[in-house]
Amino acid sequence: MEALSNKRKVMEAKPLNFLERIYLPAIFQGLAITMRHFFRKPVTVQYPEQTREYSENFRGLHSLKRDENGKERCTACGLCALSCPAEAITMTAAERQKGEEHLYREEKYAAVYEINMLRCIFCGLCEEACPKEAIYLDGPHVTSDYLRKDFIYGKDKLVEAPLNQ
User: Which of 34, 38, 66, 85 sits a CA distance of 20 to 30 A from 119?
Assistant: First the structure.
């Protein structure tokens, strides 16, 4: 098959000289690189004991906010779940019952609100889509664990504590 440009480049293999054939300069060059990196300060952070510094625009763990009266802001509109490209957010809406006026702002609230942290890509689109400013990515980083079920965060882990406690 002929090339499209009709231009060919002929490659020649030049013969190796004596030093290249015995590989000693290449071995010493590799050892020099190894020794240079051996005495540098390690960049690894020993995770459980040390934590690294985060930048100001770090998107951490999700948190569901409360208003100034201590009521949950989320009204279960579902815009955060619709805007999530990874489909990590699931919620179930419920109606507020009598006696729960001090817990929820509106008649509708999220009875179940779960985020699968294994699917979440921390893009911040849920934060931008929320009309009530109920969800923010301002928490710490997601901790490590061994079981998949421990990475599904419910309201027990996401809702911030009331101000009056």
Answer: 66
CA dihedral 146, 61, 66, 116 (to 10 degrees): -50
The reply to whether 23 falls in a domain is no
**Residue 122 structural domain:** 63-158
Question: Which residue, 58, 60, 59, 62, is CA-closest to 154?
Answer: 62
Encode pLDDT of 59-75 as tens digits.
889 999 999 888 899 99
5 lies in some domain = no
Question: Would the CA dihedral through 150, 128, 97, 91 be positive or negative?
Answer: negative
CA 92 to chain centroid, in Å, comes to: 24
- Helix, strand, coil fractions of the chain, as percent rounded to 5: 25, 15, 60
The residue among 127, 16, 129 whose CA lies nearest residue 79 is 129
* Cα 88 from Cα 81, distance rounded (Å): 7
CATH (domain of 76):
3.30.70.3270
Which of the four pLDDT bands, split at 50, 70 and 90, describes residue 121?
very high
Please report, in angstroms and rounded to a whole number, the separation of the first and last CA atoms in the chain: 79
> What does the pLDDT read at residue 3?
63
